[in-house]
Automatic annotation (TrEMBL):
<dbReference type="InterPro" id="IPR016087">
    <property type="entry name" value="Chalcone_isomerase"/>
</dbReference>
<comment type="similarity">
    <text>Belongs to the chalcone isomerase family.</text>
</comment>
<dbReference type="InterPro" id="IPR044228">
    <property type="entry name" value="FAP1"/>
</dbReference>
<dbReference type="GO" id="GO:0006631">
    <property type="term" value="P:fatty acid metabolic process"/>
</dbReference>
<dbReference type="GO" id="GO:0005504">
    <property type="term" value="F:fatty acid binding"/>
</dbReference>
<dbReference type="Pfam" id="PF16035">
    <property type="entry name" value="Chalcone_2"/>
</dbReference>
<dbReference type="InterPro" id="IPR016089">
    <property type="entry name" value="Chalcone_isomerase_bundle_sf"/>
</dbReference>
<dbReference type="GO" id="GO:0016872">
    <property type="term" value="F:intramolecular lyase activity"/>
</dbReference>
<dbReference type="InterPro" id="IPR036298">
    <property type="entry name" value="Chalcone_isomerase_sf"/>
</dbReference>
<protein>
    <recommendedName>
        <fullName>Chalcone isomerase domain-containing protein</fullName>
    </recommendedName>
</protein>
<dbReference type="GO" id="GO:0009570">
    <property type="term" value="C:chloroplast stroma"/>
</dbReference>
<feature type="domain" description="Chalcone isomerase">
    <location>
        <begin position="113"/>
        <end position="286"/>
    </location>
</feature>
<dbReference type="InterPro" id="IPR016088">
    <property type="entry name" value="Chalcone_isomerase_3-sand"/>
</dbReference>
Length: 297
């Protein structure tokens, strides 16, 4: 069987500390982290010398190790896709599991949306207890990502992209087809609760980006979450930004409505991949995987 050099996406995994006693059965890994092969380590040794090769050997099993990331960006600043490079026989179509909730997300949604990151929305109750409300996956159309972002960001390293505020803003502002898929994990969640939560969180973003409260726009969005619909554990909600900045809301396969508003689309995405996201790990995964998309030719 022929092996090929591939560029799979990365998804953050829980860290098992040495000596923690965690077994492999408790390590909720969903897609294996890319590993650099011995061939790559040898090539690296030949190019940067035996001394550096010793360092690469230590971290070759962990491409997220600070030493490796620093060295890769220093030596190959315009070849950040090597951070994802691995010799792999996988086709990259396996579902990805959000590790804390165990919720599985398909690698591809529909025919064109690629999963870029998964996360978990938590909510504090009276400041005493955090509950897991829903798991979510962030998807984007890869062709749109390249079309709107490659010219400006295609030659930048992953490190440069991840630390670029402009990059993150452009990702949310561009007319890129994106979907945030939610799967309910809290069994006692009412649709009234999620409507109230969006009134607060989306309302604050509308104010942030426009300078006004936009009550009518907010009401048009939240009114789609009608009391007659139930959200038992396992229910699916999709918030999809479609071409022309149309936000479509779908609950368990049924379309609730659509609203054309660039401001609303931006405000929704900001909850998940903005400066203060619901899950920082998910945002970091999205940033890195969008960078990976831009490095693919």
């Amino acid at each position: 069987m022929m092996m090929s050099l591939r560029f799979p996406f990365l998804f953050s995994q829980p860290t098992n500390l040495p000596g923690s006693g965690s077994s492999s059965q408790n390590n909720h890994r969903t897609t294996p982290r890319p590993r650099f092969s011995a061939t790559f380590a040898a090539a690296t040794a030949a190019s940067i010398g035996a001394a550096a090769a010793a360092g690469v050997a230590v971290v070759s099993q962990n491409p997220n190790h600070p030493f490796f990331q620093h060295a890769a960006n220093l030596l190959l600043p315009n070849s950040s896709s090597l951070l994802w490079a691995s010799v792999s026989l996988a086709d990259g179509s396996a579902p990805v599991v959000e590790p804390k909730s165990g919720v599985s997300f398909p690698a591809v949604l529909g025919s064109s949306l690629t999963l870029l990151g998964v996360g978990l929305r938590k909510k504090s109750i009276l400041g005493l207890k955090n509950i897991d409300v829903y798991a979510f996956g962030v998807y984007a159309n890869g062709d749109d990502v390249k079309k709107f972002l490659s010219e400006k960001y295609g030659n930048l390293s992953a490190f440069e992209l991840k630390n670029s505020k402009d990059f993150n803003n452009d990702l949310m502002e561009a007319d890129i087809s994106m979907t945030v898929r939610l799967q309910i994990v809290y069994s006692k969640l009412s649709i009234k609760s999620i409507r109230s939560a969006y009134e607060e969180s989306v309302g604050s973003r509308l104010q942030k980006f426009s300078g006004s409260d936009n009550k009518e726009l907010l009401q048009r969005f939240t009114s789609q979450f009608k009391d007659e619909y139930k959200l038992p554990r396992g229910s699916l909600v999709e918030l999809s930004k479609e071409p022309g900045y149309v936000l479509k809301t779908i609950i368990d396969g049924k379309e609730m409505g659509s609203i054309e508003s660039k401001l609303l689309c931006r405000s929704i995405l900001d909850l998940y991949i903005g400066e203060d996201p619901f899950d920082r790990r998910a945002k970091d995964d999205v940033d890195l995987n969008v960078a990976s998309l831009l490095q693919q030719k």
